[in-house]
Design brief:
The chain is of the alpha/beta class. The chain is built from 7 helices and 7 strands, in the order ααααβββαβααβββ. The protein is elongated.
Length: about 250
Amino acid sequence: MNLMSLKVTAFSVHLIVGFLILSAVYAYVRYNWFPGGLFELENVWSGLKILLIVDLVLGPLLTFIVYNPKKSSLKFDLTVIVLIQSLALAYGCYVISEQRPAIITFVGDRFEIITFSEGLHQNLSSRAKDTGAPPFITYALPAQTEEEKSKFIIDNYQYKYEAVRHKPIDQFIAVLSKAKLDMSNFKFASAEKEAGFQTFISSHQDKNFALFALEGTRNVAIVIAIDLDKKRVLEYLEIDPWVEYLPSMNNT
C-alpha cells in the first residue's frame, strides 16, 4: 500500500472514530441536557459546531498530513493531535453544560431560565429544591416594597437573581393560573406540530399539569408543560407562544 493510501486510511479511521464520539456527545446533550424544544431555544447547535470543526475536520486533516509509518515521531504527533481534540471536546462539553437550565422560575407572566453558569441554584433553600434535581421549578418573588419597585423600574434590577426570592410554586398556584395557556387557543404553524401537541395531551390526561410560556436566555420562547403536583417539567414543547398562541401574551 503506497503512502497516499495509508494517509487516506488513517484519515478515514480518525474521521469515523470522531464521528462516533460526537454522535454520542450530541445524543447526550440533545436528549439529557436540552430535551425537546430546549435545544433550539438555547441555540445549542452553535456550540456543537465548534466541536464538529475540531473533531471531524481539523483532527482527521492533521492526521492525514502527519501520517507516515516511516516517520520516527509519528506516535508523538498523533498523541498531540488526540490530546488537542480531547481538550477541545472537554472544554466544549463544559461550556455547553454550564448553559443548562439550573432553575426554571416564574417571573411576571412567564417562566424564565437561569443557567448553571449563574451558580444561583447552589444557594436555593431546601424547600425550593424539593424536586430533588435540576432544573428546579420556582416562583421568583417580585419587588415588594416601593423602594424595591423603584429599583426594578429605574435600575432594571432583576430580583430573580436573588436566591432568597425563589419560592416553591405550590405556594403561588393562583398566580400561575392567571398566566397558564389555554389549550384551545393555539394556532399551530403546521399540521405536524398540532399532531405532536395532541399526542402529548392524550398521553398526560391523568396528570395535573398546565402550559406556560418559557423564555430562554436569547429572548425567544417555547411552551413548557409543568406537573403542578410534582413541581417538575413534563415536556418542553417546540411551540412559539408569541406566534402560535392566540390571544397573544400581550392581549393585542
